[in-house]
Amino acid sequence: MLFPYDVKNNEADLLSAAKLQKTFPLGWDYLQRHRKLLEGRERGSFRDEGWYRFGRTQNLGLWEQPKLMVPYMITELGAYFDREENLYS
Predict the structure, then answer these.
(1) 3-state secondary structure string, 51-62?
(2) Where are the domains of the chain?
(3) What is the pTM of this model?
(4) pLDDT digits over 27-63, tens only?
(5) What is the Cα–Cα distance from 23 to 20, expressed in whole angstroms?
(6) CA of 62: how far to CAs of 2, 19, 89, in Å?
């Protein structure tokens, strides 16, 4: 999963295109290959400087902490405790 954000103090800030390109060149290449699709989301409302940002950004800064993860659609109860703060969904 590409997570183009820097998280500090439970706040997620979108990484700049320059930083993404320098730090994660393969990830940036992937985003560039899919730019047209990403910009076209929600009738073109992503045609701006942050075209690679997530569509819904609420709570992005809260993922880097211990959490109980439960799948959205399941046929029987299942969960995972993320003690290491390194899983995203």
Answers:
(1) CCCCCCCCCHHH
(2) 5-82
(3) 0.71
(4) 999 999 999 999 999 999 999 999 999 988 777 877 7
(5) 5
(6) 16, 22, 12
The residues with which 67 forms a beta bridge, in sequence order, are 82
Burial class (CB in 10 A: 0-12, 13-18, 19+), 15: buried
Can you name the residues that pair with 4 across neighbouring β-strands?
Answer: none
Bridge partners, residue 68, by sequence:
81
Could you say which DSSP state residue 15 is in?
P
CA dihedral 25, 18, 86, 65 (to 10 degrees): 180
Q: Which token pair is 34?
A: 């899919």
pLDDT at 85 over 70: no
